[in-house]
Amino acid sequence: xxxxKNIDTxxxxxxxxxxLAIDQRLLPNEVKILRLxxxxxxxDAIKTxxxxxxxxxxxxxxxxxxxxxxxxxxxxxxxxEFFAAYKEAxxxxxxxxxxxxxxxxxxxxxxxxxxxxxxxxxxxxxxxxRDEAITIKNxxxxxxxxxxxxxxxxxHPGDGILTHCNxxxxxxxxYGTATxxxxxxHERGMDIHVYCDETRPLLQGARLxxxxxxxxxxxxxxxxxxxxxxxxRDGRIQMVIVGCDRVAANGDVANKxxxxxxxxxxxxxxxxxxxxxxxxxIDMSTPTGRDIVIEQRDGSEVTDKWYERPMAPAGVxxxxxxxxxxxxxxxxxxxxxxxxxxxxxxxxxxKIFG
Length: 354
Ligand code: MRU
Fold this sequence. Notes:
Layout: E1 10-13, E2 18-22, E3 33-36, H1 39-47, H2 54-75, H3 79-94, H4 101-115, H5 122-151, E4 160-163, H6 179-187, E5 193-197, H7 204-215, E6 220-223, H8 228-233, E7 239-242, E8 246-247, E9 253-256, H9 259-269, E10 273-276, H10 300-303, E11 323-326, E12 333-336, E13 339-341, H11 345-353
Helix pairs in contact: 1-3, 2-3, 2-4, 2-5, 3-4, 4-5, 5-6
Bound molecules: 5-S-methyl-1-O-phosphono-5-thio-D-ribulose.
Residues 49, 52-55, 100, 165, 167, 171-172, 177, 204, 243-245, 255-256, 322 line the site of 5-S-methyl-1-O-phosphono-5-thio-D-ribulose.
């Protein structure tokens, strides 16, 4: 099994400007680094989940826009032409996936950075974009590290920890969000056991989370999505930690489809359900979970993907939302880089991120 521990999930090549990204569509069987340069390549990588996970999408888009700007700077004569082409490319990449707020958050930061350099030389503008993309990447690493420091305090030796989807290092630049406390507990020598939901239909839990935790030497068990209730009932899970794609101002959380079911079951069995997420995933302009746009994906991901032959009758109706919303009442705490937020979330979020 190839080790990805020392590779940043998304990175920048400053010599020959390109977005470097681990192609997550091929994991765990092959580790391949993509070199992405055009807006079409970047859009496609995000849409098809080569680059995925809310923070990694944001950092990837920021680096991607710097790379695209390098080419646009060569093609455009006037500043107005350059700025218009930049905005058009940014809007296009922003349309690749709707739910993770990190995408629009990072693109907005990059656009504001360029706008603030209006009237300056093209070289200065490009340098500013490059620095901003690197800053966004470094901030992500730092936020995830801090989430680990706060989150590890919730873990006790001997704990069984359930996670859903992949909110691991592959969903960020390094460390992950939900996995960052797990990595820190492991580094401290704590005896913990992690259960990974396989996460239908795209199997991020099986292909990515169980891969990265298992290859890091963490005691890991892969389970099918419907199995966690029986493990909770048997007392084998002491806590749940998941990531998030958007946290609304009232603490409702959008995350991978299936998350809200885990949260409801955890509540029933008295298992604390935690969400880990950086400030870049908190969206104070979205009042509640009902206002979050949920991405709908092609039904073939449910019926055909990963199988040699279709596993459902041709033509059957398929519903394939990529995310769901977990109501804030089900969440015991939101682990951020600024501390662990507790209910009532409207007040807690406003105080720290308002
Ligand atoms: O469709 P994906 O694989 O991009 O969905 C990812 C998730 O739902 C993650 O849990 C979320 O982005 C948090 S990543 C730290």
